[in-house]
Design a protein that fits this description.
Strand content: 35-45%
Number of domains: 1
Largest sheet: 5 strands, mixed
Structural class: alpha+beta
Distance between the termini: 58 Å
Oligomer: single chain
């Protein structure tokens, strides 16, 4: 979703509330979002404070993971908060928290997907005490002992 924010850059004290969602159909087209199973809900605000335009928002969604120990599939809900400074001019000195808005247009979907992909964990467990799989027979040890003798 493209947000036209030219007036926010021009008027100190102006603000715009954000309450939208990125639909699953659009997420299917984005690389790395295949395991997201709900639309991404985005709530936040864009504010011009003293001539500096900032964006802060929360994205909420559910991801279907495979446990890295037992290989069971499970869903996990996420609610992640992000903050950015928005700018009309691109600069090589800008940090990670600065987002360039060419033509005073903010592509919120692109930014939100980029933000959440960086924050999602690379290793996930279905639960903190996951016992994993038996190295001999492959049984899921969360379901009970397998009967294999320990060597």
């Amino acid at each position: 979703m493209i947000w036209q924010i030219k007036r926010l850059f021009e008027r100190v004290g102006d603000r715009q509330e954000i309450d939208c969602a990125i639909p699953l159909e659009e997420l299917r087209e984005a690389r790395g979002c295949e395991s997201i199973v709900t639309p991404i809900s985005i709530k936040g605000r864009i504010i011009n404070r003293g001539g500096m335009v900032s964006l802060d928002y929360t994205s909420a969604f559910t991801v279907r993971h495979l446990c890295d120990r037992c290989l069971d599939e499970f869903d996990r809900d996420y609610s992640l908060q992000f903050e950015h400074i928005l700018t009309r001019e691109e600069s090589p000195d800008d940090g990670d928290d600065v987002y360039y808005c060419p033509g005073c247009a903010l592509d919120l979907n692109e930014l939100a997907v980029s933000d959440l992909l960086v924050e999602l964990p690379t290793k996930v467990l279905c639960r903190s005490d996951c016992r994993g799989l038996c190295p001999k027979c492959g049984r899921n040890l969360n379901l009970g002992d397998c009967g294999c003798t320990e060597e």
